[in-house]
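Support reply, case 0932

Customer input (verbatim):
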Amino acid sequence: MTGRSAGHRQRRAREFEAFVAGAGGRLLHVATLLTAEPHGANPAARRLLADALARTFAGWERARGDDPYDRTRAELALAFARGSWRYHRGRGGVLSRLSPQERLVITLRVYEGIPEEQTAALLGLPPERVRALTARAGSALRSRPPAGDRPAAGAAAPPAAGAA
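Our regenerated output:
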């Protein structure tokens, strides 16, 4: 290995480390929203992010002009979409009431602020489908109480206020 090659690899590694130090926390939050895990207990989100970061690092040289955050977020979203069956059940996170596809769209559109057309292009969906998923997810979040607040199936409803 030549000195020039080693220096190039070290510079590449330093650039990537600086990127992860700056963006890693926000990307982990995105992954945690997607997997619907609680913020402190998010092993699936950490694995999902590690895989996305590995793919970003592998293409680091080819993506010189691209925004590494956008590239990693896209890798994260696509990895989640490919394996969304693993995350069908929420694990207690804020978006656990939503389906994986609804979580993906609402996270990209609302939390990340990606326009509808870009979200549709990233996910390979028609914009109308993205619009419908966003509306359905928003409605579900506004209307349904969290899972822990709902009575179990077959359980008696709590007594009305003032009933004796």
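We compared this against your earlier run and they match. Two observations from our side: The chain has one domain: 16-145. The chain is about 60% helix and 0% strand. Please reopen the case if you see a mismatch on your end.
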